[in-house]
Fold this protein.
Amino acid sequence: MDYCNYHPMEPAIYHCPQCQIDCCDLCVDDRDIEHGIRCLKCHGEMTLLAAEHRVTPFWRRLQESFRYPLNLQTLLLIAAVSVVSTLTSMAASAQLVAFIINLAATGVMVKYSFLSLQETSAGNLEAPDLTEAYQGGIALVLRLMLMLFLMGASVFAVAVFVHPSLAGLLGFYFIVAFPASLIQFAISEDTFAALNPLNSFRLIAAIGLPYGLLVALILVMVGSVSVIHQLIGYEFSVVALSLQAMASNYYIVVVFHIMGYMLFQYQGRLGYSAREHGDVAGRSEEAVTLAHLDMLLKEGRYDALRDGYNKALERFPSSMALYGRYFDFLVQAKNPDWLGAFAERYLRFLLQQGHSELLGQTYRTTKTVLPKFLPNSPELRLALAKDCHKQDDARGVVSLINGMQRQYPDFPHLPAALELLADSLQLLPNLAEKAEACRTLAERVRQAQQSRAAEPKRNEPPSRVRPMPIEPEPAKADSADGIGPPKTLELIEFTDSGTK
């Protein structure tokens, strides 16, 4: 199996002849499917890989094959058909009615088995829905009975008119080629095409040795059914016969699923494609852009990746996926210049888009690369401070709000910010006096804002609001923690030895 160059755990579906790379669905440009799947690197048309290069061989997924019928609908169908077949076969009276009912039940089971083969051959590995198994079942059984009758009649005719040994060889051929005939019948739905030995030989030759593994597996299943019959017993009991029928019907579904998977695996050799470009839904331009950026990341082309993200954000300015992936890349790159130029833009985007739940985590992640990072927006700093307050991070609140009264004296929500700062200062050791001074400052700023709002508007522009002074309290001139001489709240810095 070939794997995607950029997703090593995903099977490759497309190949670029120019770049010599194999890609999965996520690593191609499929915006315009009608004109072909394009390579994200060279924009050339890509070719569809044969299924045998991109799927797990059937002999390596036998466990999945045996689990295929283990769903509620299929198990109920197997149980119901087995019980009905057993009861009708035991009916002594009304034999015609019992035969019709038995034929109908068998038809449903055979129809479902062929549906499993056809769905699997198209790449659908989920069991089909039961609603599709109730039409055409009897006609299908009759055609299969016709196939078996013609095979038996051919063997009998050769034995009578030619030679018994040749009849034995012909019978052996029919046993070996019967799975190929069923596969051919599923493809063409033509009884005589399925019996044509040339078609069977062509299919067997195209598949090769794995076909022999399939025949061997079927023989093992037939043998195991015989063992199950012996273990259960051959008593004329409804329960015993129903269990035997359930085991047989379960194996039939498994075998048809394996035959369908083999048809899907070797579709290239058999001359058809279960997947055409038109079956793939084209992605949006944004999704293709993200795929291209992901490819640049895995190739290690970081300068081109950064340039690609910047251009992509110009085209998709409201893309949450682009912003998030770009931020993650910059954090992993650990380039302070790159992250410093983008972090505040990303935080503003989160705030504007209403993703306040991501603000705090984004800010803390940024601080791991830029320990002194501080946004320039008062709205953003207040929003981040509220998140820090919820996280009981008092120091984080102080570092965000402290000094805002000097930097943004006209900020409408400055009183609320200062009150939040005071609440956080109250939680820190030796800063209770500063917390009280901060509350006083918050009240004075609020009063000043209310006074300005009550004044009549004048033609001249409003004057710039100056920081409100704090009344000095008796303190020593050399006191590092006093509020005395300064006319505004002092900046608070955190050091390894404490606060100052």
In short: Residues 276-280, 465-488, 494-498 have pLDDT under 50 and may be disordered. Residues 238-265 form the longest helix (28 residues). Residues 60-270 form one domain. The CA atoms of residues 415 and 442 lie 5 Å apart.
